[in-house]
Amino acid sequence: MLILSPGWAVEVTRCDMHHNALGYSGTAGNSVYVHDNRIHRNGLGFIVESILGGHPGMPEDHGWFEDNKIYSNNDNYERYVQGEDAPCQAATPEEVGHRDGVVCPAFGFPVGTGGIIVGNHNFISSNQVWDNWRQGFMLCWVPPALMRGDYDPTHQQDNSNFNAFTKNELGYSPSGKVPPNGIDFFWDEAGQGNCWQDNLAAPGKEVTYNYAVGLPDCGNPSQWPIGNLVKTTQLLPCAVYDRYSNTDPVGCDWLDTPERPATDTGARGGTRAAAAPEPDGPGTPAALVAVTLLGALGIRVAGARVAGARRRREEVGS
Amino acid sequence: MSLLDARPDRAARPASPGGTPPAGSSAQARAPRRTRGTCAAAVGGLLALVAGAWALAPQAVLVSAPTPSVPVADGLLVDGYGPSGTLALHYRYGERMALTLPLGNASVVPFRVTRAELVEPTYPLLEPVGGPVEPVDLDPFGEGEVVLEFEFTNCRYYHERANNTYDQVRLTGTALGREVTRTVELAVPLVVHSQVILDCPERTFVRGDDRRL
Questions:
Q1: Long-range contacts, stretch B34-37, CB < 8 angstroms, 24+ apart
Q2: CA distance readout (Å), A138 to A177, A182, B92, B138
Q3: I want to staple B162 with a disulfide (CB 3.0 to 4.6 A). Which of A38, A231, A264, B194 is the partner?
Q4: Which whole number is the average pLDDT over A283-293?
Q5: How many CB atoms lie within 10 A of CB A256?
Q6: A51 interaction partners in chain B (CB closer than 8 Å)
Q7: Mind listing the pLDDT tens digit for each residue in A56-95?
Q8: Which residues contact B64 (CB under 8 A, 6 or more apart)?
């Protein structure tokens, strides 16, 4: 249901958004109140973004996402696109088979994601988010010059800032099942004023994210506008996706279905950040050195014993 | 002649059982031949060295990664996006742009660049115009630059979230008279993004007309 409501430009509520490449999209979708919807079984659940040029009101701001059920967004429609015989490569719409459920994604998005935010002053609160195999929510920076056609140097850090993720219930369903997200929060560490607070995980589990230290809470939100280089540059290789001529871009893993996360993902005492592998500790090299020293010592001892035995034999012989 | 012939004890022996020519005169007779042989070997070695160097010259050419630049109106360097930033080009359909590539020869072999082109996809958003570049001579460890001209085009083949990324330049030329081609990574990649339909006059409403096939 779409409502023009006082205070919000648009209100979206009681919708069932499912089985799409992208469930909900809001380029420069400002002041939208999205609540009490089910967003499920899409490739990507929803996106509000400041990426696409030619839209008034950039960058996107003031979306409110509350009390939505966002789950199982892992349907990968790339199977209809990839390969010469793929249905989406057919010449006519009838041959493609849209009526039989064939979906031909026009854009390359990260399959297995609940929602993506590329904007400012968004409030993502009290949603139930589970079973999204790549990540529950993704917050990241996109430089306006790269995709939006805004070359003003002072605008390049105009997203994603002042977004709050609060009181979301992560990795468990209303029926009590515990299907985890791949990680609950992906953040590229860019932007200021972003915060995460009072988000809940299932009993015995912890909220998972790809950040080495704890995500900043809303009393001490993020400060630094520049992101993590490794995390920020995935967009470009995936942006060369084309459903006819480049269906599997080099260097883009967004279009691959992520593995279903293990049921102990987020278990307390386990890995907190599934996507941030710990650096190797000193144990392995130390063990190698020890084994080498022991081996050398063994050879020396054996050599000395052989030499001693030979000397004794010579003494006996003489 | 071998090393054994040069041993003092061998030189003292008679040359044959009959012992007719004295040992000293035999050594004197062989000396000019040894000198000539040494010289011939040296010359041969030198020639082989030169031939080898000539043959291997194309392999020895090394060009350092160039950092591209454009006039301010044609793009913006976005710091923080990628290890060295990313140069975002300002697409304006039908307009032209000049890209400057400084080239550095990182080898001892002189390299004459006669052609430079970005490694491009089919239907590039940035199409080369302006013909071949002026040849550029790069001395050993020397520097130079080429200026490439492009036109913004082909937007009909790309949806509005698409882009082209250019991160390599292919250089063709000669080194010591032999043809050389080098594909060099750009120190800063170039990105040119596609347009919404309003900014792309060549886009049509014909289904399938945007296929890059």
A1: B34/B1, B37/B1
A2: 23, 12, 32, 48
A3: B194
A4: 44
A5: 14
A6: 161
A7: 899 999 999 999 999 999 999 999 999 889 999 888 888 9
A8: B103, B104, B105, B106, B184
pLDDT at residue B28 greater than cutoff 70: no
Judge: B76–A232 Cβ closer than 8 Å, yes or no: no
Q: Are B145 and B95 in contact (CB under 8 A)?
A: no
Q: Is A149 on the interface with B (CB under 8 A)?
A: yes
Do the chains contact at A156 and B191, CB–CB below 8 Å? no
List pLDDT tens digits, range B201-210: 988 888 777 7
Chain A: residue nearest B191 by CA? Answer: A146
- pTM comes to 0.78
Residue ranges of alpha helices (H) inside chain A are 93-96, 144-147, 229-232, 235-239, 283-317
Residues of B in contact with A232 (CB under 8 A): 80-81
Distance CA B171, CA B103 (A): 10
CB-based contact A46:A70 (threshold 8 Å)? yes
User: Alpha-carbon distance A275 to A260, whole Å?
Assistant: 14
Two structure tokens written together for B96: 């032209």
The secondary structure of A88-148 as a DSSP string is GGSSSHHHHTGGGT----SS---TTEEEEE-SBS-EEES-EEE--SSEEEEE----HHHHT
User: How far, in Å, CA of A293 to CA of A118, rounded?
Assistant: 55
Burial of B48 (0-12, 13-18, 19+ CB in 10 A): exposed
